[in-house]
Amino acid sequence: MNTADNVNFNEKAGFICDMDGVIYHGNQVLPGVREFIQWLHDENKEYLFLTNNSGYTPRELQQKLARMGLDVSEDHFYTSALATAAFLKAQAPGCSVFAIGEAGLLNALYDAGITMNDVNPDYVVVGEGRAYSLDTLTKATNLVLKGAKLIGANSDVSGPIEHGIAPACRALVAPIEMATGTQAYFCGKPNPLMMRTGLRMLNCHSGDAVMVGDRMDTDVISGMESGMFTVLVLSGVSTRETLKTYAYRPGIVLDGVGDIAAMARAQK
After folding, report:
1. Same domain, 174 and 229
2. What is the DSSP letter of 24?
3. Which residues are tagged catalytic?
4. pTM to 2 decimals?
């Protein structure tokens, strides 16, 4: 594995970057992000924003960054909702689902030719969303007991928001798992299927790519297991203390993505 001593970011061809806690908190862009994106453009690097948040479509993410003054085109985004839809389309083309989630998840499922069904669906699919309630939870539980397979868009337990954290997909699926005794299958990071798709979209070999994220349990492990150099940034949920609780380590720990651009310019 690469170490911080021998990484030269100028030599890397592609960057896969998490969003929440790396690019922004809520609606606040994080320090150094503008410089990082400018550097990616200046150096003609391939890059992809890969998020486990299933609530937004790529266009909504593009518009969210535009509101923060960041110009990134729609083709630079890939979400756990798209990964979930791709998985279901490959496993069971034309299947039906009972879905709990936001527009990002529902649009991705529709675009993959998957229909909605709250009577006898093939799958129950859970993402983050305000539609989550005891009623939808009860419905999902009974559909799984009747034989629907349980899918989670991602395995994040929580995610950073402006004033703390919010329960994320793993926490929302847990009551259904507990009530039914069924384990969900999760499609987002660190699922290697999502990482392989990201690398394919970059047209980049894993050895030439960098994974940048703020979580050890999704970002760093997925990059490491895919053979990429990993950067843990401390602008999200991780600290140097939480780092010590894991048996593996990132390639380098930085305060934020701006440090990547600063290091790269210094290495030239």
Report:
1. no
2. E
3. 18, 20
4. 0.92
